Amino acid sequence: MSSCNHPEIINKEVIAKLLGTRAARPQILEKCGQYARVPGEAGGFAITSKYKENGKVTCLMILKKARRKTIMKTHIPRLILLLLVSLSLSLAACSGNKSNPTDPVKLNTPMGLEVTKATLTWNVVTNANGYRIQVDGTERDAASASYSLYDLITPGGVYQIRVMAKGDGTDYTDSDWSAAYTFTFDPINDLYELPANLVVNIGIFNETGAELGVITKDALAFVDQEVVVDNVTRHYIAYSMTEIFAYLGISTGFESALIEASDGLTGTVTSFDNAHLAVVRITTATGEIETTRGFPRTLPSNIQSVVKITLSGVATNPVNPTTPDIEFSIDNLEDFEIEISSDGVNQGVMTKAVLVSIGQSGQVEVPDPDARYPDRHYVTYPLKDVLDKMEISYAGFSSVLGDASDGYWVEGDIDDAYIAVVRRHANGDVQEADRFPRLLIPSGQIGPRGAAPVLENVVTITLEK
Fold first, then answer.
1. What pTM does this model have?
2. Mean pLDDT over residues 423-433, rounded?
3. Is residue 57 part of a domain?
C-alpha cells in the first residue's frame, strides 16, 4: 500500500477546529512517516496516517505535542475534507494526487502618476505584464511605466488620467485603477516631446564649404525648449539658435548667415540674437498642433523646412600645437587610470605616473578647439609620446577612440590626439582640477552631443586601424 502525500502546513487553531469532538478511534493501518511543524507550537508537529472505517481507506490527521509525549487522533469526515479543498489547505489524498494550484495574486495599484513635457510616468509595479492608461475614458496600452500623451491631449485641456497594471492571467490578475490624476495641459509650461515625424538635419558650413557641424533631432534634446509667441493665438515650441550653436561648439561671431530651405527659398540674417529654431506650432484657440508642414523653421526670419546654414566671416580658431611658454607641474592632478587597448586586447593602463615620467619638457600647448573661446589653451602630452613611454606599439593604427564614464566618446586621427592636463586662459587663470585628464582630438568628432572634441572622464582609449 503506497504512502500518503504530505498535507500542506495549516494553522494550529484550524487543525483544532477540524479535529472537533473525539470520535471512536479507527483502525490505524500505517503512518506515512512525513512530518510538518505546527506554527506557534514548540516541539509540535502533525503527521498523516491511513485508517480504515466502514470498509473504506482514507487519511487521518494526527496532532502531536512532543513535550507532553501525547498523541491526539481523530478522523476527518468527508465534509471537512471538502472544506479543506475549498480553503486551499488541500489535504493530499492517499492516491498521490497533487494539491490545487494557488489562486492568482492581484497586482498592486500603480502610484506616483506625474506628467512632464506631455509624458505620463508612474511607479513600476512588480510582476506587471504591461499597463493600461485611461485619459478621459480613452484607453491605451503601455509596455513600461511611461507613455507619451502627445496624441491624447490638446493645449488648454483638463484631463483625468488613471493607470492599471496588467496581470498575466495565470499567476497575477489586473490591479485596480489608480486614483484619478488631474492634468491641465498648458503648452507654455508643459512643453512637448519632439514629434516622432519631425525630421531635423541641418548642415552648418563656413563660406569655403567646410562643414562645421549638424543640427539633428538628437542634438536638440540637449538644449532647453522655449515657447515663442507668434501672435495672440499661436505659439511655437522652439530652441535658441545661440544655444544650439554653443552646444555644437560653433562660433556665432559671423558677419552673416545664409539660411536655405528644402524648396530652394533662402534668407539672410546678421545675428542669431533672439533667433530660434521652431519645431512645433500650436494654435491655442482651437488646440490644433502643427508638426508636419514646413518644420523645422528659423524665427523671426521664418524660413521653413531649413536644411542648410552657411556662415560668412565666421571666427576661426586654427589648431596648431606649440611649446608652452610656461611649463606646468601636474603635481595637483588627481591619480587616474585609463585603459589602453587594441584589437580587443588590453595593452596597459595609463596613470599619472606615466605623465610624470615624461616630464614637463614633453608638454605641448594646443588651442581650445571650441571656437567660442579663442583665448583658451590646453597643456597636453601627445598621445603617441605617452604610448611610447608605455612601450605600446601603435604601428598600423591610424585613429583612436576614447570613451568616457558618462557615455560620451571622441574619435579622430591618432596623430592629432593629446592627453590634456591643464586648461590655461589668456588672463593667466589655470584650471587643473576640473575633470582632468581629458582626451583632446582637435580634428576629431565627439558624440553624441556634437560639441568641441574634448572628452572628459576618460576611462578607455582604443587604437583603431
1. 0.37
2. 74
3. yes
